[in-house]
Amino acid sequence: MDGWMDGLKASLSSPQASSEVEHRAGYCAFYDECGRNPTVGESLIPPIVPCLNYSRVCPMLDFGESNTYACCSLQQIASLETSLTLSKAVLIRCPSCADNFAHLYCATTCSPNQTLTVNVTKVMNVTHLGRPRDAVVAYQAYISSTFAEGAFQSCKNVRIPATGGFAIATMCGRYGSKLCTAQRWYDFQGDTSNGLAPLDIDFRLLKENDTTGVPEGMIPYNGRALGCNENTTTGGMACSCQDCLDSCPRVPPPPPLPEPFRIQGMNGFLVISIILLCLLICAFVVYLIVSHYVKSKNGKNLSKTGRKGKIKDENSNEVGQPIINPSEVTCADKTSMAAQAFMSRQFQRWGTLMASYPFTVLLVAAIIVVVFSVGLKSIKLTTDPVELWSAPNSRARQEKDFHDKHFTPFFRTNQLILTAPGRKGHLYDSLLFGKQNFSGLISKSLILELLDLQRRIQVTKDLNRTATLKDVCYAPLNPSNPSLTDCAVNSLPQYFQNSLDNINLKCHTLSFFCLFSSSPLSFKDITDLGMSCMADYGAPVFPFLAVGGYKSQCPNYTNAEAFILTFSLNNYLRDNPKFKVALQWETEFLKIVQDYQRNPKANFTFAYMAERSLEDEINRTTAEDIPIFMISYAVIFVYIAVALGEYSSCKRLLVDSKFLVGLGGILVVGCSVLASMGFYSWIGIPSSLVILQVVPFLVLAVGADNIFIFVLEYQRDARRLGETREEQIGRVLGQVAPSMLLCSLSESVCFFLGALSTMPAVKSFALYAALAVLMDFVLQMTAFVALLSLDARRQDNNRCELLCCVTVSTRRPNKPNEGFLLPFMRKYYAPVLLHRFTRIIVMLVFIFMLCASIFLMLNVKVGLDQELAMPKGSYMLDYFQYLYKYFEVGVPVYFVTKKGYNFNTVEGMDGVCSSVGCDQFSMTQKIRYATDYPERSYMAIPANSWVDDFIDWLNPGSKCCRLYTSGPNAGNFCPANISETLFSADINLTHILTTRFMAYHTPLTNSQEFTAALLKARELAKKITSDMRKIPGTSPDFEVFPYTITYVFYEQYLTIVKEGLFNISLCLLPTFVVCCLLLGLDLRSGLLNLITIIMIVVDTVGVMTLWSIDYNAVALINLVTAVGISVEFVSHMTRSFALSTKMTRVERAKEATATMGSAVFAGVAMTNLPGILVLAFAKAQLIQIFFFRLNLVITLLGMAHGLVFLPVLLSYFGMNIYRCVAGGRYNALENTTLVTFDCL
């Protein structure tokens, strides 16, 4: 592509010496050809001498027949055409640029007034066709800077679609496109050391009226250079926008970003939260005032009516007790009481039955668990992140499947980022490029060390010698039968074709780096060595893929701080045998890199990764953290075993302990989890590591609570006269089982509804958790009742727990054992909490917490940075740090077209391409416009376009444009009529069913940027699709979509907020419905229950913002879990309050707080907290953040709301259930005709 002047033969001078040339119009400085320049080595291609018309080469000198004069022969015209043909390979996309480029050489070679511009400075005697001739080998060309600058400006933005780079970068030597100027451009063209110019030309660019140094009689050439937005004289169209900024239409800049939501200059959400806080406080204060007024009025009315029914509460406060007739009991009251009585009777019968036949029950329960658990033999653990977090029917997943089906899956990346900290930079004075500042990294010794490491990796084999690099490598130019040198390995040594000889040549390595990094597409360097910049696999290595850590705004690669070494492998589906081969090679790759890292002689500090690293590290840390979970469960077990004991005396310590009961409770939880996992394994629903970690923890929290409620209620109960042990257990179960059913059923329905989620990980978790909670309740109602019956039998016989044959003489006390917690909460905690001033403070504090959490919730970060999935100390954390610090370009992104677009028409081609004559708003042009605003579009490099390459390939003005990479013609140009398998990786050449165009994102460093890049790419693709559908012949369902490997992971964050609201709402619904139904259509209790749970969830999300816990799918799973755990904290208390027989709301709240609150505190809070605290020692950051931090927050907030806020809330707004209870008393006491109820 760079051979824009190769093959032009040296021109024959006139007989006169250069100093004797007369500089005036009508005189030639040289004429005809004298063979090759003896000072120039082999040219890139042999010259071809076709018979052409003069006007095709230099139309600007064509003045018609009999009026056209020239200083060149037909041979010179033919050679000039050949030379210009090579330049057109990179410039023909812009006809005016190509015309201006040719214009100068036509003026200096063929102009009839040649001597006015050209001054021959050196001639050599050569023998050509048997005749000695004087050949011109150097001359000066005096050019007007106006013409030169105009020609340069017309060419400076011409692109090479295949690379996205600028053509000028290949024609300006070491300066590249960024630092190229008109003078530097011409200097490079006239330097024979570039391997391209046939003779030395000293271009002197002079400003208007500047004659400094101009020989007498000479006039700087001042032709008219066409603007790139002008048509040429031969009918060539103006250049396209992609190649000429002046041709670009006025594209409006993207609309400004929406202003942050503000009210009167303040954060709008903060203002709303403050307003809500004020409204809620005002509403509460108004309620207090109205309530006090009503109580005062009712007190006066009672004194007037003369009703004397007064009783005293536990604080000796008089409470009004109006007397009512049983007929006043409403239907709702009767329904509520009937529901409670029915459930209590049924559970009492059931409990008595289970306690009467414990061994039979345990055997049947064990058989059922075993039957379910047998399914575990078919269990499948999903470890693929795509399968876990991306729904099969999601857009990103379908687009990924489409791309992988029609093209190959995104290649596998194995990469090292190497630095050499502490090495001082230095100044290097290059003969070619002058003084250059180099970082300490860019040195020959380190390049050699990098090459040595690269070679060691390239030749690696696994122990079975079945996995070699060439077996699985990505070989774009020889995919069918690649050799080791065909493998795509991008690194700095590739600039030297991985050759020690090339690096050790006499010219300094640093000089070549300056050249190659500035012009990676060059086939020959500008020295007499003729080295290529191309990699050994035949493609260019762009500097941003070889080095990093330079300033990206104006790249100076010599200041790079990092080498980048990348091995690209083909990707395969997981059931493809070669997938395992790729994994084997990557395993060996990691071993070699890790061995090198441990080598004390290594001069590099580096980070590395393999494609398999993410999954490997997640699996590794999961395995390493299993002991942490085991310790957590052990701590919980020890606590349960100790806390359930009665400990009436030291002599009965081993008798009254509940070690086996605690163990039985843990086994019940474990069996319920195993049964759930076995069942779903039977029906083919895969499990995951998240399920293995979270579900047992959740079920243990739920199960432990029920165990404590049941056992503590049994310990606090006294056996009635004539009542058997089994009947007592059945009666106690009848009292507490409805509450256990309320919580378990709410949670189970909650999780089953959560299975409607589209996220596979959330869906499978919800299914496993729902069945596990349900099975846990069933086993508690059966197996655990049987275990408690056996333990009670042992305890009644005064037998030790672990030594059943040993008995003690000390008898068990007949009075109930209330333990320590119940008296403490009854005597101290509940009275203090429900003091009238304390209640006001509690309400105000929790109202403030709610409003503050609403504000914080609206500011929670959405996403999951991939480094959080790694354990502390993982080598991947170093890699991510290096990646974000040193990489100057983001991931490649493909714009993929689906079936339905007609590429066979002119309109179809114009709608895609960006060459001359193409639609200014074609697909590739729209992508290019997006790169003008990278901070908004997240697009860094425009898309390369096979359509433009194909147009250039077939352009009659460009006769050769590719090189053979292998075979007998290796190194020679491949003419346009030899297409072979060109573009086969991107399109179906028969029908063009689908194709893709690759661009690059900007560097993306966190999940918010990845998500925003996905959103912007989709917006761009949507606009492209809309416009391309308007082109005749396009199918209405035609579509363009963006694809890169990361989209499938980050798509969830576009909808996860809505998804979370939907899932949590579904979970909250059954907590309200079930509570209402099981409390006999008690809407008020159900509503208060629901409000408290909502507050727990909102406050949890608020604390997530404060504690830097991002909202993502893992957090969503925990929030769904939070609803379930909140039910345990709240629903037991609500039901206990509703069924209390105390006279006032305050007294019922005190009783519920003391009796049920103590059981909830011991069973939920104190069961969870020790196990959660152990998780703080886990290595995995995900566990530390989303299981330790988040579960700690959930437990503490649940405890605060359930044991502090809810009793106060019920004391103010709770239902007057006493009437319902009174109705129950009336039915029980047949001779009583009048009952009382609390009207407050």
What is shown here, in short?
It catalyses: cholesterol(in) = cholesterol(out). The chain is α+β, with helices and mostly antiparallel strands.
Beta-strand segment tally? 28
Poorly predicted segments: 1-19, 42-55, 307-324, 976-986, 1222-1240
Secondary structure tally, helices? 37
- Main beta sheet: 5 strands, antiparallel
Kindly report the average pLDDT value.
Answer: 80
Instruction: Give the DSSP E fraction (strand runs of 2 or more residues).
Output: 5-15%
How far apart the termini lie comes to 93 Å
Radius of gyration: 42 Å
Outline the fold blueprint.
Elements: E1 11-13, E2 30-33, H1 54-57, H2 74-91, H3 95-109, E3 118-128, E4 131-144, H4 145-155, E5 159-160, E6 165-166, H5 182-189, E7 200-206, E8 262-263, E9 266-267, H6 268-305, E10 310-312, E11 318-320, E12 323-324, H7 331-356, H8 358-373, E13 381-382, H9 385-389, H10 395-406, E14 412-419, E15 426-430, E16 434-438, H11 444-458, H12 469-472, E17 489-490, H13 500-503, H14 509-518, H15 543-546, E18 547-548, E19 562-569, H16 577-598, E20 605-609, H17 613-643, H18 653-656, H19 659-682, E21 687-688, H20 689-716, H21 725-754, H22 760-796, H23 821-833, H24 836-857, H25 875-886, E22 892-897, H26 906-910, H27 923-930, H28 934-937, E23 939-941, H29 946-954, E24 960-963, E25 973-975, E26 995-1001, H30 1007-1028, E27 1040-1043, H31 1047-1050, H32 1052-1078, H33 1083-1106, H34 1113-1138, H35 1145-1174, H36 1181-1213, H37 1218-1228, E28 1235-1236
Parallel strand pairs: 4-7, 13-21
Antiparallel strand pairs: 1-2, 3-4, 5-6, 8-9, 10-11, 12-28, 14-19, 14-20, 15-16, 17-19, 18-19, 22-26, 22-27, 23-26, 24-25
Helix pairs in contact: 2-3, 3-4, 6-24, 7-21, 7-22, 7-37, 8-19, 8-22, 17-19, 17-20, 17-35, 19-20, 19-22, 20-21, 20-22, 20-34, 20-35, 21-22, 21-32, 21-34, 22-34, 23-35, 24-33, 24-36, 32-33, 32-34, 33-34, 33-36, 34-35, 34-36, 35-36
